[in-house]
User: Fold this.
Amino acid sequence: MTGLRPDLFEQAPCGYAVLDASGLVVEANAELLRLLGRTREQVVDRLTLAQLVSAGGRIYLDTHVFPMLSLEGVVRELALDVVQADGTRVPVLVSANLAPGPEPERSLIRVVVLEARDRRRYETDLLESVRSIEAARQVAAELAETLQRTLIPPTPPAVDGLAIAAAYRPAGDGREVGGDFYDVFQVADHEWLAVIGDVTGKGVAAATVTAFVRHTIRDLAMQHQDPSDLLQALNRAVLEHDTDRFCTLVVLRLVDDGADWSLTGSVGGHPLPVLRRTDGSVAELGTHGSLVGVIATPTFTTFEHRLGDDLLLLYTDGVIEARRGRELFGLEGLLPLVAGADHEPAAVTATVVEEVLAFQDGNPRDDIAVLTLGSARRRAVAG
Amino acid sequence: MEERAFSYEVSDGSDRLVLHGDLDEGATVQVRMLVKEITDGLTRDLTIDLTDVDLLPSSAVGVLANAQDTAGKQGAALTFVAADGTIAARVLTICGLSYDEA
Assistant:
């Protein structure tokens, strides 16, 4: 205290104590005594620091703090509870350093004690917030899954004379809604529309766009006979609806003339449908078209095909973009697979999904949607 | 094999942007800003070489197509280059975008 007024120590705005090597309090200022709720006579030269903290704190002091002090010479920001004479616990932050003496047993320990009621309250609040965020996230994840179930029809409708096999596999752990979707719905007597598509992005925001796209297609299907006209109208609608998101899709109109299905289709920024003939030969069908919802003047081309005994596979880019390191599954992987499958829609869909999953060790980085169509009227010959 | 991080260089007196590696989400944002900057807000011609790109998700293609469309409206041409058989060539084809092979 040489040259300094004693009250600078006594009235310091933090609790200050000096301990001897055994941990006994040999000096204590007014603020510390206030925190402890005890008088100087009750504390100084009578109690050790360990006797002034909670039981948990005592163990912590013995097993960590004092060993660390003798090793490092300093400890900082320990969160402890001091216990007042009436049993009230006061959260504090403690820092201490060692003032070495001529021998270890004559060393002193300087201890600063700061009241931390507010800080502890803040931390408790923070912990509470983290818990409620986690709970909200859980709810959101469940909501996303529910939303996804509404977006992916679990089973396509039964269509007289048409065999349909659909499958959907979300990316990764499946907790995030992806943008892949398919839809099969009736537009007139003997007339159906089949759609497969992919909206960019993931999560609920993408899912709402997916829902918008699906509903808009259902609307537009009543107004536009030509699938390319439908895509032009959808392009305008998506451009107006959302500036950032866009989609890729294949639209097929299937007309049943009683003996055969005649198809007209159009493709917007999407992989072309794959045709499998009864002899096992495979080929892409249609013409590539623009992404839907990016530019004001896109190009779409309508193609026609009589289904006969052929199968038609529609899929999303999660199939051919499947990667293993830098190796791509690609069309090179897909076409032989389709050629080698049994000539049944269910067999083609199952084979494609299984192989693409296996290629990525069962953990796809993108959604996979697959829809295979075939006439159920004539009995197809296995190819 | 490991995925390659995105990188790029500008050559031919800033008329040509060459992209390498994965065009993931972060890289796509970078490319969007880069293209705007090089072309003075999509008002100057630019060739974007995608031959050495390993990953070209449709979100990235959307950004490129959008930039090309905007540039076109402002009288500038954005040209894509992808060598035959590359990932970029296939993805651009699927997305209905034309490209040069060299």
